[in-house]
Amino acid sequence: MKAALDTPRTLLGKIWDEHEILRHPSGPSLLYIDRDMIHEGSFHAFADLKARGLKPRRPKQIFGVADHYVPTRGRTAQDAATPAIARMIETFDENMQWGGVRHFSLSDRRQGIVHVVAPEQGITLPGLTLVCSDSHTSTQGALGSIAFGIGQSENAHVLATQTLWQLRPKVMRVTIDGVLAEGVTAKDVMLALIAKIGAAGAGGYAIEFAGSVVRGLSIEGRLTLCNMSIEAAARFGMVAPDDTTFAYVRGRHYAPSEQEWEGAVAYWRTLASDEGAYFDREVHLDAAEIAPMVTWGTSPEDAVAIDGLVPDPARFDSADRRKSAQKSLDYMGLKPGMALQGLALDKVFIGSCTNSRIEDLRSAAAMIKGRKAVIPSIIVPGSTQVREQAEAEGLAALFRDAGFEWRESGCSMCAAINGDVIGPGERCASTSNRNFVGRQGPGARTHLVSPAMAAAAAVTGCLTDIRRNGGGVA
Amino acid sequence: MRAFVREASKVVVIPGMNCDTDQIIPGRFLKSDRAQGYGQYLFHDIRRTSAGALDEAFPLNQAGAETATILLVEDNFGCGSSREGAVYALVDHGIRAVIGPSFGDIFYNNALKNGLLPVRLPSEICHSLATHLAHAKDGEVVVDLQAAEVVLPGNLGTHPVVIDAFARDCILRGLDEIDMTFTFMEHIQDFEAKRLASHPWLDR
Lengths: 474, 204
Fold this sequence. Notes:
The structure holds two protein chains of two kinds.
Chain A: H1 11-19, E1 20-23, E2 29-32, E3 35-38, H2 43-52, E4 62-65, H3 83-99, E5 102-104, H4 114-120, E6 129-132, E7 146-149, H5 152-161, E8 163-166, E9 170-177, H6 186-197, E10 205-210, H7 212-216, H8 219-227, E11 236-239, H9 243-249, H10 258-268, E12 281-286, E13 293-295, E14 303-305, H11 319-332, E15 347-350, H12 358-365, E16 377-379, H13 384-392, H14 395-401, E17 405-406, E18 427-430, E19 445-448, H15 451-460
Parallel strand pairs in A: 3-4, 3-6, 4-5, 6-7, 9-10, 9-12, 10-11, 15-16, 15-18, 16-17, 18-19
Antiparallel strand pairs in A: 1-2, 2-8, 13-14
Chain B: E1 6-13, H1 21-24, E2 70-72, H2 85-93, E3 97-100, H3 105-113, E4 117-120, H4 123-135, E5 140-144, E6 149-151, E7 158-160, H5 165-173, H6 177-182, H7 185-198
Parallel strand pairs in B: 1-2, 2-3, 3-4
Antiparallel strand pairs in B: 1-5, 5-6, 6-7
């Protein structure tokens, strides 16, 4: 059933083999799931359990975090935008209590966006299988785990059995070598990758990120890479755990204790893909060719360098793509050949599981340089801990002084279901992950950018090349 | 789960590559109780004009579309958010099968758990079918999962339904996966006991 010991294996293959309880004669593995992360949207799964007369089977391996619907202007359910939204938060707390599930509710200091909180608390660890009914669960593979998004039926299955039937995905290795130019971040790498391989480019694959750029990235940067794997259609993003990972994990609340530490690290060091392991597809990116990126359309694949132009749909190679690109331009209110740099904006959003960690906030703060936001700009830290850290470092004061709104943590304007929305026709530079039609509110126009690019846009009021404005980068 | 064995129907063509689950059901409806039905939210914003009226140009709003149970879609349908509400909306509207070149992986799995059959057909065949349907709107498609084939109208032929054997068996029988997995509980418990012993921090 398991691969012979001398067959070189990938990171994914090793963790998969370790968690395969059995393989069904017709193909899929029954995988053991170490951790299930729950958020407010899980009410369907809880309704399913209740209807069956079941309870969560392994509550200690399940963690709840309120994030999608939480208000960012206050910390009680009464601060929610509407009574119906408040009800979602209350239902979540009730379900967690009913199920005996440990949870970080709205007022808890450990609250935040589930994909920010789980690594922060040491819930995400190398070598684990972790699921959450959220597509951006791919984020958490950055620590060297198999982490993937599921739906509510699968969530109910995990709650009831602590397992899932899964087909092993193919593995695509994305190697990023060279040196990133100043002002170019993990976000830009991902937008460049998705522009290259397409929004469906990694469907059916897990992406393993490798190369000198990835090795040199902090955990925060790696989380951003893996986060956006799903925007290339890969349900899994992964980075082999290394010393950077171990240093990040050590001492976190749910991580192995100091007595267990050496043994855990020794095992984690065996997880990296073996020399000669087979990858179903290889993609290479040269870091030197990546510029700060911005999206012009309504799919994350619609990304170009900030000094680029809105493309002409007529130049795309397929009829479907031409039609979709034209529809995107109509929605975005753009014309072929327009420069993106200098495009006037209405709003800026800095936040989301893609870019709301402390490093993201530092890089945004570095762009401000005593200037003021000239358009409404909000900053939503990824977790209450990130918020507290940013306050301790003086970043919050800097943002407030510059006219940014400094909010409480949550998904906010990325999912745009908590009441934080962009108005119809408004144009927003956003550090989130999806520029879909209506994603940030009906009629909202989203341009995906890095935190530094978003901060620069806030103080200029338009899309701005951070390599030229003298704001922290040459 | 409702079983899927065979479905014969007219087909509604939903245009657009990368039709994400936000288009299938906007996020603001996801807090709704399933008992009230999610069909009313299907393609909510893209099937309406900005004033809120049903847009006659949207295929699902056209005469005859209400009885169709099969959709034809473009590449990467159901990408984006993992919201199972997208599948609930399709199912509650009465859709039984979605044919397209590729699907978002999470959407694909969610569909199978709800008796909605996603059928992957090569791009060229999907294009030919769309072209055919543009001229012959009432052309019927038969999705026969028992025979693992799709019969297309006109001279477009019969094509295999490629689906993994496990998923096919589950949806053909309308199998409840949780009940089925419980039959493996001894294996799960043995495995778990060893895993928690070697990774005690998982059990705190």
